[in-house]
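Reminder to self: C-alpha cells first, then the designed residues, so the page reads top to bottom the way the pipeline ran.
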C-alpha cells in the first residue's frame, strides 16, 4: 500500500492533503512541505499492534485494527515545484 501527501494552497495559506482531507493551514509553502514530510515519516515507523481511527474520503470516520509492522510506502507530492 502507498499513500501520497499533496501540498497545496488552502485557507489563505498552505497545507497538505491526503485522500481529500486537508491538514491545518501553514503560513508558508516551506512549513507545509516540512509538515507533510514529517507526517509521511511517521507513517513509516513500525510499532505495536493497535486500533486506529481515521477520517476517510467524504468525512467518514473508520476504526480498524492494524499490525504495528504493516506500514505503507509514503510520498510527498509538491505540484508547486
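Designed residues (81 positions):
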Amino acid at each position: 500500500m502507498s499513500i501520497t501527501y499533496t501540498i497545496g494552497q488552502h485557507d489563505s495559506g498552505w497545507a497538505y492533503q491526503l485522500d481529500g482531507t486537508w491538514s491545518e493551514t501553514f503560513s508558508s509553502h516551506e512549513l507545509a512541505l516540512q509538515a507533510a514530510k514529517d507526517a509521511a515519516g511517521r507513517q513509516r515507523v513500525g510499532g505495536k499492534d493497535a486500533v486506529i481511527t481515521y477520517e476517510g474520503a467524504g468525512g467518514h470516520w473508520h476504526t480498524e485494527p492494524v499490525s504495528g509492522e504493516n506500514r505503507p510506502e509514503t510520498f510527498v507530492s509538491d505540484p508547486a515545484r
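DSSP finds one helix and six strands in the chain.
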